[in-house]
């Protein structure tokens, strides 16, 4: 039996929310603006992401009509071995170089790796949920895979957001030391973009629960309707007009006598 319009509507809303959540989480993880700090003495804006960092030179006045000119970003990967060697050499000369303290925030820490693990795992599970959700109208048992995988994706995504929020508010990660002063990092827009994607998955999970409930309640009701007959239905023999048959007359049996001939 085909699914009803309500079931298809709930399933469509859930799939659309999963797609929106995937787009937002991918946009968040590819952006370096997870932590942003303006270091005035360096006249630069530093963006510290999960797997790469970017630096933008400070905006400057170019003309009266054109007030500010924005410089392009210069980025580097946290997992780049050559960049890691440069950071280590800079930190070794921290007494001579006052800007060495800022280089500490360009390292690839364990909490960065943990956040990336949970984000990528949640995106993979959301993709599995998306594929299984498309198959529900044809094969209804995939509704369980659809709901369970989406639930685990939501949990992993919440773990990623929680780990970052706690790590970003630690004193050693929140403040950047410059040559003459310290500057406070603020949480960038990339975190909020990923958080909105997580909220979309939470809404999608709620619709997924309703979808699974609708599909299986209809399946159960259709099965019970086949195997059980309502009490209001007439008995089976009363549904058909059977022409009464005349009883056949009793048959009489005649006993035959047989004689045996014997010789004298």
UniProtKB/TrEMBL annotation:
<feature type="transmembrane region" description="Helical">
    <location>
        <begin position="143"/>
        <end position="167"/>
    </location>
</feature>
<keyword id="KW-1133">Transmembrane helix</keyword>
<protein>
    <recommendedName>
        <fullName>Clc-like protein</fullName>
    </recommendedName>
</protein>
<keyword id="KW-0472">Membrane</keyword>
<keyword id="KW-0812">Transmembrane</keyword>
<dbReference type="GO" id="GO:0016020">
    <property type="term" value="C:membrane"/>
</dbReference>
<feature type="transmembrane region" description="Helical">
    <location>
        <begin position="187"/>
        <end position="213"/>
    </location>
</feature>
<dbReference type="Pfam" id="PF07062">
    <property type="entry name" value="Clc-like"/>
</dbReference>
<dbReference type="InterPro" id="IPR010761">
    <property type="entry name" value="Clc_prot-like"/>
</dbReference>
<feature type="transmembrane region" description="Helical">
    <location>
        <begin position="114"/>
        <end position="136"/>
    </location>
</feature>
């Amino acid at each position: 039996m085909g699914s009803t319009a309500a079931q298809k509507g709930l399933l469509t809303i859930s799939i659309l929310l999963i797609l929106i959540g995937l787009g937002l989480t991918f946009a968040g993880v590819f952006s370096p603006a997870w932590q942003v700090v303006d270091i005035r003495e360096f006249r630069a804006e530093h963006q510290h992401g999960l797997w790469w960092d970017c630096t933008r030179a400070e905006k400057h006045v170019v003309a009266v009509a054109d007030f500010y000119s924005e410089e392009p970003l210069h980025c580097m990967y946290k997992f780049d071995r050559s960049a890691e060697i440069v950071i280590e050499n800079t930190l070794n000369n921290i007494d001579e170089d006052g800007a060495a303290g800022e280089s500490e925030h360009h390292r690839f820490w364990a909490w960065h790796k943990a956040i990336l693990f949970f984000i990528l795992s949640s995106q993979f599970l959301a993709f599995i949920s998306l594929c299984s959700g498309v198959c529900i109208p044809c094969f209804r048992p995939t509704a369980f895979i659809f709901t369970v995988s989406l639930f685990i994706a939501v949990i992993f995504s919440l773990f990623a957001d929680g780990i970052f929020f706690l790590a970003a508010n630690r004193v050693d990660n929140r403040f950047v030391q410059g040559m003459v002063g310290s500057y406070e990092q603020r949480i960038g827009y990339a975190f909020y973009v990923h958080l909105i994607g997580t909220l979309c998955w939470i809404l999608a999970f709620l619709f997924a629960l309703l979808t699974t409930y609708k599909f299986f309640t209809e399946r159960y009701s259709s099965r019970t309707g086949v195997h059980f007959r309502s009490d209001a239905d007439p008995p089976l023999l009363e549904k058909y007009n059977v022409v009464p048959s005349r009883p056949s007359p009793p048959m009489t049996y005649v006993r035959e006598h047989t004689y045996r001939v014997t010789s004298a």
